[in-house]
């Protein structure tokens, strides 16, 4: 009976989500173990088989750093900002497209799913430009050259629509290109938000290594289970988010401004967190609404 009641509780959500597109970002820190990653893939397949159209975007920062170390390449920083030179961007592509993306696709195949691995380059999905970063020197601002770090110029969702409409699950790495053929490393949160906006997705779901957004970032008991976009904007302005949570918040705000209905930040290392967040009243992470 307990098992049946779970299904019955899920029914209204399944009905609501059937046929809807959801962009799911798997963070580098939510992929640290193969086991956790495969379980996440299985949950995403469950979404797919109840009629949801998942679009997966993944990160991979920790693996890039690890591979660089293996190849004996010292990460370069200028004022705390990582520089992506020619040598580094080659490793970024190798790790993100050649390894992480292909591994996620393999798990989909292994568990009976049809996934298509691609980067932001494919089908000109994400057109990038070099990211301009400024720093303050005394009274004036000077530009810092980060190398091949990009930001989104625009998104062409056409290729995704072809893939999704034919029953496949796109798995996208955060590598993009400009019209001169320069390849850029992108922030995966931002790419996920941009794609969600371009697809007018029902939801943007971020799987990370914390339970959601904490009102006080140092207090794990201050998890916010539901908040408005305005509140999130306020937290960002007041500096109550730092590190990897900043691009997530920016991506969410951007996606909601572009027609995405809701965004969720959940702990990807907790088993079945996606299913609990989507199919139960209580949820498990942080939900942000327009
Ligand atoms: N207010 C906050 N609530 C939750 N996490 C926060 C907050 N501010 C900063 N963070 C940090 O953001 C991190 C998640 O981003 P990140 O490390 O980039 O993970 P991912 O690999 O999923 O992108 C958390 O581990 C946490 O340290
Ligand atoms: Mg991150």
TrEMBL record:
The residues the entry assigns to the signal sequence are none
Q: Which Gene3D superfamilies match?
A: Acetylglutamate kinase-like
Q: Which parts of the sequence are marked as the site Transition state stabilizer?
A: 25, 248
The compartments listed are: Cytoplasm
A single GO molecular function term of this UniProt record: acetylglutamate kinase activity
User: Which reaction is this enzyme known to catalyze?
Assistant: N-acetyl-L-glutamate + ATP = N-acetyl-L-glutamyl 5-phosphate + ADP
Every Aspartate/glutamate/uridylate kinase domain range: 21-267
* Record GO cellular component, one term: cytoplasm
Could you tell me which InterPro entries the record lists for this protein?
AceGlu_kinase-like_sf (IPR036393), AcgluKinase_fam (IPR004662), ArgB (IPR037528), Asp/Glu/Uridylate_kinase (IPR001048), Glu/AcGlu_kinase (IPR001057), NAGK-C (IPR041727)
TM ranges are: none
- Is Nucleotide-binding a UniProt keyword of this protein? yes
Binding positions (substrate) = 60-61, 82, 185
Q: In which pathway does it act?
A: Amino-acid biosynthesis; L-arginine biosynthesis; N(2)-acetyl-L-ornithine from L-glutamate: step 2/4
Instruction: Enumerate the UniProt keywords alphabetically.
Output: Amino-acid biosynthesis, Arginine biosynthesis, ATP-binding, Cytoplasm, Kinase, Nucleotide-binding, Transferase
UniProt entry tagged with the keyword Metal-binding: no
- Gene Ontology BP terms: L-arginine biosynthetic process via ornithine
Q: What is its EC number?
A: 2.7.2.8
Give the family this protein belongs to, as stated in its UniProt record: Belongs to the acetylglutamate kinase family. ArgB subfamily.
What's this chain's function?
Catalyzes the ATP-dependent phosphorylation of N-acetyl-L-glutamate.
The record's NCBIfam families line, in alphabetical order, gives: argB
Report the protein name in the record.
Answer: Acetylglutamate kinase
**Native source species:** Geoglobus ahangari
